[in-house]
Amino acid sequence: MAGKLTRCPVCGKPVSWEENPYRPFCSRRCKLVDLDLWLSEEYRISVPREALEDEAEEVEGGEV
């Protein structure tokens, strides 16, 4: 493999970054496994507690 090598975030296999239609994944399968983890809420983006409280106050106050 030529070019920059990185590791697939799903399986850890070394994968070329250049000319890889699935980057940063090594294959279509790993790309879909990652998507499934997001859709099943295995992965989450953390939000600071203050942001959640501010949002709740806006909803209660009628400002959405």
Q: Numbering strands along the chain, what is their spatial order in the largest sheet? A: 1-2
Low-confidence stretches: none
Beta fraction of the residues?
Answer: 5-15%
Query: Compute the gyration radius: what is it?
Result: 19 Å
What number is the mean pLDDT?
Answer: 83
Give a brief rundown of this model.
The chain is α+β, with helices and mostly antiparallel strands and 64 residues long.
Structure explained in plain terms:
The protein has 64 residues and is α+β, with helices and mostly antiparallel strands. Helices cover 38% and strands 9% of the residues. Strands 1-2 form a two-stranded antiparallel sheet. The longest helix has 12 residues, at 28-39. It is elongated, with a radius of gyration of 19 Å. The protein starts with a strand and ends with a helix. The relative contact order is 0.12.
Outline the secondary-structure elements.
Elements: E1 5-7, E2 14-16, H1 28-39, H2 49-60
Antiparallel strand pairs: 1-2
Keywords:
64 residues, alpha+beta, two-stranded antiparallel ribbon, 2 strands, elongated
